[in-house]
Design a protein that fits this description.
The protein has 14 helices and 13 strands. It has about 450 residues and is α/β, with parallel strands linked by helices.
Length: about 450
């Protein structure tokens, strides 16, 4: 448990530097609600979510007032729906989705994650039904976020699932065409999905997690940027090793704050405390950008030479600082590079400094992957699947989590602009230089697990 004196000193230091708790996420187990009768299942699930999650908003507000640190999002993550709803078809899943949306609204939470399927080695009937239901679910509901784990280091890459998801992404985009395909912003496709991630759209409550659990996402791009600027501005920045130490020290202090807040919220709502995830998750606001951190570190434009090395150092320092601060660090904990959600990254794309190819290289050393990538509306399902395959391969081979949020924007082409609003931001639509890989993707099947999977 962090020392109160250290924590109060840290809060005083960081109050003026835009530190926030980006997400307080309550995980809720729903397997005890499963029933063959869909009406009974929906009733039990809705009652449980409202009962467990209703105290969350008030608890977050009280803790936020006490320490002067805003809690931006209050969220719920549930057991993977494809497993809870085994034996049910698409129509039943749509009924459940509306019940989940209503429960989230009644409980006052911003998003509910866990409309998920784990298909890295194959799809069950209920997995396929859930994926087929996504266009209607993500267009007809407001608060539901979905995820599909289509690859893992242990299992390899399920190309059949990615081919299906390529078509589904096009369908979701078409159903939300009036909002630039916004429904796709609420679907993440993963390799090695973590069970305790508090961030959307990839949050779900893992099967090995407690009955109810509080996971905290403490974000601080502005805090890290400010620390780097102050450190380098002193004239005593002796080298990149010293800079890494400064980032690590900042991550240490922020993690201490996050754990204290998380434990107090957990106690207030009667849940177990899970993890604190110190991911540098940006927003579209200026000053809250991972891209601006690169510039503070001396990279002229994000995407230029040195960007991948800078991101590797940043990610490593954040993880080291968090691990030293707490024995409960989990989730992802590192740096996100979601293009549309980060004003500096979106600007770099607009100016031509940041391309899909460079982004993919950078994802080999960051926490997630090709995140919030807007693409031409006529991008084929095979090309969408191929982009996902490339990104998930990085995760599979390197034993790390990677994911994609790909958004084909109906009626728009490369160079046009997609606008989502709020935390989802806006971005120029990116150019795909070569999209002639359809024959490879259509072979389907499963790319086998790498040799590194045999590590028992």
């Amino acid at each position: 448990m962090p020392g109160y004196e250290d924590t109060f000193q840290t809060i005083e230091m960081l109050q003026s530097e835009h530190l926030d708790v980006r997400a307080v996420n309550m995980g809720i187990d729903l397997f005890d609600c499963a029933d063959r009768d869909i009406d009974k299942t929906c009733k039990l699930i809705k009652e449980k979510i409202v009962r467990c999650a209703s105290p969350l908003v008030g608890a977050c507000q009280r803790v936020s007032r006490r320490y002067g640190i805003p809690v931006v999002n209050k969220r719920v993550a549930i057991s993977p729906v494809a497993d809870v709803m085994a034996g049910h078809g698409v129509e039943d899943l749509l009924q459940l989705a509306h019940a989940l949306d209503e429960a989230a609204e009644e409980a006052g939470v911003d998003f509910i994650g866990g409309y998920s399927a784990l298909v890295q080695k194959g799809m069950t009937v209920s997995d396929r039904a859930l994926i087929e239901s996504l266009p209607d679910v993500l267009s007809d509901t407001r608060r539901i976020c979905a995820s599909v784990n289509a690859a893992s280091t242990r299992a390899g890459i399920n190309v059949d699932a990615l081919l299906l998801l390529g078509r589904i992404l096009r369908d979701i985009a078409a159903k939300t065409a009036d909002a630039d395909g916004f429904g796709c912003c609420k679907l993440s496709i993963f390799a090695n999905i973590p069970e305790d991630n508090p961030f959307m759209a990839g949050a779900y409550k893992g099967i090995g997690e407690p009955e109810t659990v509080i996971n905290i996402g403490v974000s601080g791009p502005g805090v890290v940027k400010s620390a780097i600027e102050k450190f380098c501005g002193t004239g005593h920045c002796g080298g990149l090793g010293d800079l890494a130490e400064q980032i690590k020290s900042t991550a240490f202090r922020v993690t201490r704050c996050g754990e204290l807040i998380g434990r107090e919220v957990a106690e207030a709502v009667g849940a177990e405390f899970g993890i604190v995830d110190l991911s540098l998750a940006p927003t579209p606001e200026v000053g809250d950008s991972v891209g601006e951190i690169f510039e503070a570190m001396g990279i002229g434009k994000v995407g230029g030479p040195g960007s991948t090395a800078a991101l590797a150092m940043l990610n490593d320092a954040v993880k080291k600082g968090g691990a030293f601060a707490s024995s409960s660090v989990g989730g992802l904990s590192g740096a996100f590079i979601p293009v549309a959600e980060d004003s500096a990254l979106a600007k770099a794309v607009e100016l031509g400094y940041l391309t899909l190819e460079k982004l993919e290289a950078m994802t080999s050393v960051c926490s997630v992957g090709l995140d919030m990538i807007t693409l031409p509306g006529d991008t084929s399902p095979e090309t969408l699947a191929a982009l996902a395959m490339d990104e998930l391969a990085i995760g599979v081979i390197n034993k790390k989590t990677t994911s994609v949020r790909l958004i084909p924007v109906p009626g728009k082409k490369a160079g046009d602009r997609a606008v989502f609003g709020g935390l989802f931001g806006e971005s120029p639509i990116m150019h795909i230089r070569n999209d002639a890989s359809d024959a490879f993707v259509r072979m389907g099947g499963r790319i086998p697990a790498p040799l590194t999977s045999l590590n028992n």
